[in-house]
Amino acid sequence: MHGEDPTALVLGLDVGGTSSRALVSDLSGRVLGVGEAAGGNPNSHPAPDAVAQMAGAARQALGTHDPAAVRGCVLGMAGVSKMADPAFGEFFRDEWSRLGLGCETTPVSDGVVAFAAGTPEPKGTVLIAGTGAVAERVEEHRTTATVGGWGWLLGDEGSAYWLGREAVRATLRALARGAVIEGLTESVCAHLGVPPERKALITAANAREPIRLAELAPLVTTAEDDAAEDIVHRAAVLLADTAATARPDPSCPVVLAGGLLGPDERVGQALRAELEARSWPEPLTAGPGAAGAAWLAALPLSPDPNALHKTLLG
């Protein structure tokens, strides 16, 4: 642990498929700049575009601050394994060198960043559910096991994609038994722009890119009928099972992250109830990922990491 350098800055980035966010702070936790750009997940975007978005967010966050004053930089990224790809690595090094940072950049998974955005503890479980779903076991601020995150075709149980698919399946089952089409099932047909008819619904659902079924998730989380309640409950059970597989031991914290798992979100509430029924400790909710990444960047530099975490993330 080093004495605090009042001139030292840290840079944290949280890069996903739809947005790239960056934050610059000093070692007291004072936020000096933030930046945002389009998605930079290299598994979702061409390498030059992905790297350009990351760098754009970083430049915006740095503003007029001297990049040479940055003593720590952590890049949390969905698709972090792409850093091992020589072609992507070359694009990254070329673009990143133009930033002029005074330190190396440490790439970590978005799960590690989300976990750090929820707790300063070095060990525990993070569960992320948005368009997809994944859990990670974190030890010493590094991923040691990953559960799920297989993508829509192979898994992502409990994700927004899964919710949307289950909504279509529930509607098809209702049509098959001649049930009244109302509530969730009526909303599904309306969203897809089809009459409540089997062939029309199947055709419309399959005409889109499969991942776009995630757009139906809000229909599930806002409907108040038995079909929606059943889907939400099953999602909570599946997500809890995913987290349980990644859990290192019962005493470690659990951090929830992603658009579906906020404390005011219906799936998030159902999941918290499921975890309580399993006698788990109350889960923590991740704060902003870029702030979690900045805290990780400051970790080897800060004389009081816990106080810094409280300042940056509350």
From TrEMBL:
<dbReference type="InterPro" id="IPR043129">
    <property type="entry name" value="ATPase_NBD"/>
</dbReference>
<dbReference type="Pfam" id="PF01869">
    <property type="entry name" value="BcrAD_BadFG"/>
</dbReference>
<dbReference type="InterPro" id="IPR002731">
    <property type="entry name" value="ATPase_BadF"/>
</dbReference>
<feature type="domain" description="ATPase BadF/BadG/BcrA/BcrD type">
    <location>
        <begin position="11"/>
        <end position="276"/>
    </location>
</feature>
<protein>
    <submittedName>
        <fullName>BadF-type ATPase</fullName>
    </submittedName>
</protein>
<dbReference type="InterPro" id="IPR052519">
    <property type="entry name" value="Euk-type_GlcNAc_Kinase"/>
</dbReference>
